[in-house]
Amino acid sequence: MLRHLLIAWVFASSLPLRAQRPEPADLVITRAHVVTMNAAKDVIEDGAVVIRGERIVAVGPAAVAARYTARKTIDARGALVLPGMINTHTHAPMTVFRGLGDDVPDRLRRFIFPLEKNLMNREFVHWGGLHGVVEMIEGGVTTFVNSYYFEEEFAAVVKQAGMRAVLGQTVINFPAPDAAEPYGGLALAEKFARAWRGDPLITPAISPHAPYTVDVAHLKKIAALSAELDVPVLMHLAEMTEEMTLLRKDHNMTPVEFLDSVGLLNRRLVAAHCIFVTDSDIALLKARDAGVAHNMVANIKSAKGVAPALRMFDDGLRVGLGTDGPMSGNTLDLIGQLGYVAKVHKLDRKDRNVMPAIKVVEMATLGGARAIHREADLGSLEPGKLADVIIVDHESTAMVPLFDVYSALVYAASPRDVRTTIIHGRVVMEDRKLLTLDTAAVRARMRDITRRINAALAAGLK
Amino acid sequence: MLRHLLIAWVFASSLPLRAQRPEPADLVITRAHVVTMNAAKDVIEDGAVVIRGERIVAVGPAAVAARYTARKTIDARGALVLPGMINTHTHAPMTVFRGLGDDVPDRLRRFIFPLEKNLMNREFVHWGGLHGVVEMIEGGVTTFVNSYYFEEEFAAVVKQAGMRAVLGQTVINFPAPDAAEPYGGLALAEKFARAWRGDPLITPAISPHAPYTVDVAHLKKIAALSAELDVPVLMHLAEMTEEMTLLRKDHNMTPVEFLDSVGLLNRRLVAAHCIFVTDSDIALLKARDAGVAHNMVANIKSAKGVAPALRMFDDGLRVGLGTDGPMSGNTLDLIGQLGYVAKVHKLDRKDRNVMPAIKVVEMATLGGARAIHREADLGSLEPGKLADVIIVDHESTAMVPLFDVYSALVYAASPRDVRTTIIHGRVVMEDRKLLTLDTAAVRARMRDITRRINAALAAGLK
């Protein structure tokens, strides 16, 4: 059946039906075409979302709004109102290098590592990271999962921007931009985790780069530290053919089995990519309750292959979507990923009926929340959840007509259609204007950094 | 090497170096980051494009502008200036059905044909077609190739919008929205072709639907008519597995061989899709000098497969990009196709180095011009060519930094970044405002049509 005929609506369960006096609220979104992504996948054509403090207190038809007196009202006419999207894997500060090294062989060792060795520093992380944060807020991402260097520097600016993030300090077996010694990131990670644990927006994490760039002893230390501090571990997994070969040769294991052997395969892990996973790997990822970040655009741009994300999702694994870093996938919003996820899985399965648009939107929202074990608080518009909400214009020409909200989002929307972004109850962008950041200042610093990178490239990288 | 270090510039060959008095011009675009797509692939960082009447008279560095006195100047600071993109295959009036029948099996016979039979009419073609024209102009398409019904109605509105198009009247073996009898479209096509031949913007064409929906006798008639009137033939080819099976069974030929046997495989043909072509089919398409429309997004959304467009392009065939209709690919701009073309061919070939961004931009511009045998007039910014020019903002967050213009266009741009569109020397959109169309009126009619389609769907299709 055509989904648009099945318009459903819900009254927020928390609404006291006999309320006489309006209750106070901080923000009411009215005239919203609400795409709740709740269990029933309710879509409310003329609805309202009510926010008090950092939480959603009501979601329902237009009449719901009348039961509240709000300090601020946003008219969402002509727009879809959705849970904020969750980018489960990126390296946001690498925006400074975006567009370098596309379409060339051995990019990691010829471009990424030399650029980072020569040029990456605290300043670039600060401003390049903020530039990425701007792009994500503009593109409707409300939570992101990041692995990079100088994460304590980045944490401060992300928090200032009002964005929610899981930030993983990188640990790697060679000197890094923020650590002169191999594995120097581990001490930084511990310090960072202890300093930021319990923050309402920032979740500190440890990010061992990959099974082929961190040795067993350090992986075990990281497993112990993650358990002790109860912080996530973010890691590239089953992504590279050389990784598969190496682990088979050295340990006679798949990367998933290897992570299990060092104590990292557990509910605190968010594993990025998982392209080359076997049936038993998938079963093991599920048994250990690990999260998976599916990065379709980056994975096909690098010709690595199509991760069995559809199979994993259908098997009940915690699968969200990710962009990977801007040197890999170029853009950091999830709207740009949706169409690829829908279409490339159809191609891969040779079946146009699989990976329907509604499932892709679920992966981008609730799926991402599940991947980071935050589905109790994030990923859908429901009373009691944290108020991470985006308002997406459906009046751009390509979105008209609107027979099916999921089709329109997946097959026609642009990240430029996001109008307003609300995170933790705070309006961080309204009508495309960022309220928590001086975007002109960020842009000016990016221009300066770009000039310096061009000069360094002209002089030659070491 | 990094392409951005290889900035080149050209003086327009037509510029008289000893000119003292400024020459008259109609439009000068200044402070342009010009992506010429000429044979040398010159990119001019601070350049100018000069237009007189419907033609480009000069392309060069900023100083070129001073040699002309123009009636109008457009400051293109912060933007790329490119040849307009050419959409080599679509069914634009089907915007009225966009988003219906996504992700379902047997869409052609369960949705498309019944919707058309029950609902499609002259009015829907007029307004749905105009809505598609708006989307294309907004998305930087300056020429499109269309196959549908009521093409003489559509021709009038396309011309009024100032857009360039090859419009093919559909011929099919069953009663159609514009013809009560099977093959009734053939008489309409002849009348349409005779009426519109020689128009500067509209090229009339005949569009036999596909080898499996038009019989041999009619295909031969169409071949003769196309030759007599010298008008293009637009046709779906080697797109469906059932098509392959049927032609093998009935004629023991591939679809390409079959078209050759009925006299249609020649320089007037624009063949859409060509997914299932053999090596000898490719050689035959090349020998006959036919054009090919590669529709990546539609082809993978329908899980049909990846056409060997890279192979065909590298073999010197005339390959352009197309969106297919909005029930197939959903959107009608080419910017939304670019990333798919680059990335899915890399995946298909298991090689990240193939189909680099520069080649994809060439397919969208000069490749499209070659597919319709118009490369003498269209597809690049060069003196003497027709002035089909687009101005694309490169200041949106995802396009910063701009190390490589082709990477930025293919991997980061959105159709919403197109700022200004010029067709045949006429500014049809400036700063996102359409100048040749009343977009509010088009939108109001689309709303009304959508309401009526919803009512018809609720009542049930025959």
Counting copies of identical and different chains, the oligomeric state is homodimer
- State mean pLDDT of chain A (0 to 100 scale): 94
CATH superfamily of the largest domain in chain A, by name, is Metal-dependent hydrolases
Report how far apart the termini of chain A are: 60 Å
- What is the CATH-assigned architecture of the largest domain in chain A? Alpha-Beta Barrel
Number of domains of chain A: 2
Structural class of the secondary elements of chain A? Answer: alpha/beta
Report the major sheet of chain A: 9 strands, mixed
CATH topology of the largest domain in chain A: TIM Barrel
Give a brief rundown of this model.
The structure is a homodimer of 462-residue chains. Chain A is 35% helix and 23% strand.
Overview of this structure, please?
Two copies of one chain form a homodimer. Chain A has about 450 residues and is an alpha/beta fold. Chain A folds into two domains: about 5-85 and about 380-435, Urease, subunit C, domain 1, CATH 2.30.40; about 85-370, TIM Barrel. The first copy, chain A, has 14 helices and 17 strands. In chain A, strands 1, 2, 3, 4, 5, 14, 15, 16 and 17 form a nine-stranded mixed beta sheet that branches. The longest helix of chain A has 21 residues, at about 440-460. The first copy, chain A, starts with about 20 loop residues before the first strand and ends with a helix. At the A-B interface, helix 2, helix 9, helix 11, helix 13 and helix 14 of A face helix 2, helix 9, helix 11, helix 13 and helix 14 of B.
